[in-house]
Amino acid sequence: MNQHVRTPFDQIPPAAQAGILCNDPRFQKFAAMRCGLIDKQFTATAAAEYLRDCCNISSRADLNTSAAANQTFQTLRTEFDAWTGKIARQR
Predict the structure, then answer these.
(1) If DSSP states are collapsed to H, E and C, what string results for 51-87?
(2) Residue 54's closest CA among 24, 82, 25, 18?
(3) What is the CA radius of gyration of the chain?
(4) What are phi and psi of 74, to 5 degrees?
(5) What is the enclosing helix (H) or strand (E) of 46?
(6) pLDDT band at 65 (very low <50, low <70, confident <90, very high)
């Protein structure tokens, strides 16, 4: 019996995490709102561009090698998690 064990999100490389997030409609809405486009639908491509701009990288793969970009990405993830209600907002 071969069981598939799912890798926890936090243990996936940052570039893969970013790819998953950019394909999440909730993250797309979060990115659109952050860009002041409240009534616009963001695509995965637009969300990826937003993420690259925020992290000051040319490719999501850079998240695996740049400590500064990865730190910015982790902050962005925390802000997204707070926005979705997954974690409590800081006061």
Answers:
(1) HHHHHCCCCHHHHHCCHHHHHHHHHHHHHHHHHHCCC
(2) 18
(3) 14
(4) -65, -40
(5) helix 44-55
(6) very high
> Whole-model pTM?
0.84
CA distance 28 to 60: 16
Q: What is the mean pLDDT of residues 60-75?
A: 96
At 59, list the tokens: 């490719």
Map residue 88 onto helix, strand or coil.
coil
CA distance 54 to 66: 14
For the CA atoms of 52, 71, 85, 26, the dihedral, rounded to the nearest 10 degrees, stands at 20
d(CA 73, CA 67): 10
Percent of the chain with pLDDT over 90: 69
